[in-house]
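Before the break, one more example. Copy the sequence into your notebook; we will annotate it together after we see the structure.
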Amino acid sequence: MAKFAKWIGGGLAWALTGGSPIGAIIGFAIGSAIDNARVDTNNSGKQTGRHQTQAGDFGVSLLILSAAVMKADGKILKSELTYVKEFFNKQFGFAKTTEFMRILKGVLEQDINLKDICGQIRFNMQHPMRLQMLHFLFGIAKADGNVDESEVRVIQQIAAYLGIRESDFESIKAMFYESADSAYKILEITEGDTDYEVKKAYRKMANKFHPDKVSGAGAEVENAAKEKFQMVQEAYETIKKKRGMN
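Here is what the structure looks like once it is written out:
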């Protein structure tokens, strides 16, 4: 898939490794004739070593997980397709996004083994990038203004397979569900925690979600990380104001 890797532009260190779960899904969606290469779906896809995640790896991985979330409620909505298209357009440009959307159509027609796909992602992708991926998936689910419970369950399953803690899942989920205690959930604390614990939690979350953690994944991913980082800051300021903290 040398030509395809070059076409992606952002770089592919591991996503389309021959015989890998992601390589098999994408290869089937594109067609075995692409670049006169065939993805070996009988290969176990075991990784021999971790690779640095590049923009192309992130994009291809997100494409498959996006399809899983979109299929969760049994219907593919135009608003969801638009959200995915806009993300890829900002990340890779119009021409490549057109091809990505063509590939997405093929991916949506397949059964997706989330455990295997997420296993490959978890092995190769650093934790901060996996957190950012979860953030985008919630954005896709809420693209129509409403997050269906079936979509939440799929995202939660993805989070578990990606090795993301339940508290981190709830923190990111709270960024999309506004409630009385959403600020506390974002910081992974409760209203019963002390002011000292609030400050400690903020420092921890600010470090966890710092945009520098996803450097190299592409401009759009980094910009989205900044938005998530800002949500952590806003949650902290909300709690400070409620408590009268200095």
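Confidence is low (pLDDT under 50) at residues 32-45. The chain is about 65% helix and 0% strand. Try to locate both features in your own notes.
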